[in-house]
């Protein structure tokens, strides 16, 4: 019993000493369990989350603060919090999960985040394994993952989303969109963006919605199918090509140019739907391209 009490005293002294060594603006949390905190911010702070594994949910709200709840699943994982400046409303807030003891061989270095940020915030999220969900954030957003699925809804800044094996879903974006994957599927739902690019190697691409006047949309795939579902009133100039795949088009397109007719049959189309107000470029090497009415 005496040895146990002594151990607690020594641990407490060490913890106090360690806190004195932490720079201003840096907080560290270690050990399993749930942590909740609020950080006052400016109207458009830059918020970054760098995780090892686990789910991340971020939602914009109308308060000038970052409210975060994170749950650590392993005693070998810790979370650093850095806010800049260290006093007053923060312009930048960074959260970083990391292994405290790399020799432990922990197979589940999981930290789950639930975060609310000012709507004008910009985001930078790195989460190799785990789902990422972002809603109602108006600033620029960047999300990177290896195997996790990513879903972003109601964004209005520049959106850059990359995943190696996970699926990507982008719902009602209004800013510039770039989505890249290797094995994952891409799904775009009701965009009002005027610049959109989606590329995957082996996954499928589905685009549901209309096109903005003057917009530029580029969808490319290597072996997966591409499906575009748009209203009969859509107005676009289509340039669709596939080398070994097929074309399935339900719109009465008007061919553009004498030398750019629909030849070779079934492999390329260059034509106009309506008055051709948007530009749509679709390419696939061996997949089927479907252009269908909603």
Written overview of the protein:
- Helix content is 7%, strand content 51%.
- By secondary structure, the chain is mainly beta.
- The protein has a 25-stranded mixed beta sheet that branches.
- A hairpin with a 5-residue loop joins strand 5 and strand 6.
- The longest helix has 20 residues.
- It starts with a helix and ends with a strand.
How much of the sequence is in beta strands?
Answer: over 45%
Bulk shape: elongated
Low-confidence stretches: 1-27, 258-263
Number of helices: 1
Class computed from helices, strands and strand pairing: mainly beta
Radius of gyration: 24 Å
What gap, in angstroms, lies between the N and C termini? 73 Å
Outline the biggest β-sheet. 25 strands, mixed
Compute the average pLDDT: 87
**Strand/helix succession:** HEEEEEEEEEEEEEEEEEEEEEEEEE
**What is the number of E strands?**
25
Task: State the share of residues found in helices, binned by percent.
Answer: under 10%
Helices and strands, with pairings:
Elements (H helix, E strand, L loop, with lengths): L1 H20 L4 E5 L2 E18 L5 E6 L3 E8 L4 E8 L5 E10 L11 E8 L3 E5 L5 E4 L5 E5 L4 E4 L5 E5 L4 E4 L5 E5 L4 E4 L5 E6 L4 E4 L7 E6 L4 E5 L5 E7 L4 E3 L4 E2 L12 E6 L4 E7 L4 E5 L1
């Amino acid at each position: 019993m005496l040895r146990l009490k002594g151990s607690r005293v020594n641990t407490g002294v060490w913890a106090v000493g360690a806190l004195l060594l932490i720079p201003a603006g840096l907080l560290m949390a270690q050990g399993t369990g749930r942590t909740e905190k609020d950080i006052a911010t400016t109207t458009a702070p830059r918020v970054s989350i760098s995780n090892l594994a686990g789910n991340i949910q971020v939602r914009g709200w109308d308060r000038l603060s970052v409210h975060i709840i994170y749950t650590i699943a392993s005693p070998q994982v810790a979370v650093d919090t850095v806010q800049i400046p260290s006093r007053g409303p923060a312009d930048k807030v960074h959260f970083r999960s990391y292994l405290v003891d790399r020799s432990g061989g922990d197979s589940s270095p999981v930290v789950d985040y639930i975060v609310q940020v000012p709507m004008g915030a910009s985001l930078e999220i790195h989460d190799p394994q785990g789902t990422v969900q972002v809603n109602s954030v108006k600033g620029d957003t960047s999300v990177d993952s290896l195997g996790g699925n990513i879903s972003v809804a109601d964004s209005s800044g520049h959106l850059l989303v990359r995943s190696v094996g996970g699926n990507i879903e982008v719902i009602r974006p209004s800013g510039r969109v770039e989505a890249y994957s290797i094995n994952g599927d891409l799904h775009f739902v009701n965009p009002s963006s005027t610049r959109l690019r989606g590329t995957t190697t082996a996954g499928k691409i589905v685009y549901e919605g209309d096109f903005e006047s003057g917009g530029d949309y580029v969808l490319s795939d290597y072996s997966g199918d591409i499906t575009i579902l748009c209203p009969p009133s859509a107005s676009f100039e289509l340039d669709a090509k596939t080398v070994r795949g097929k074309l399935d088009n339900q719109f009465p397109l008007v061919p553009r140019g004498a030398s750019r007719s629909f030849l070779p049959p079934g492999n390329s189309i260059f034509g106009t739907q309506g008055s051709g107000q948007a530009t749509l470029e679709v390419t696939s090497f061996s997949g089927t391209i479907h252009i269908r009415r909603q």
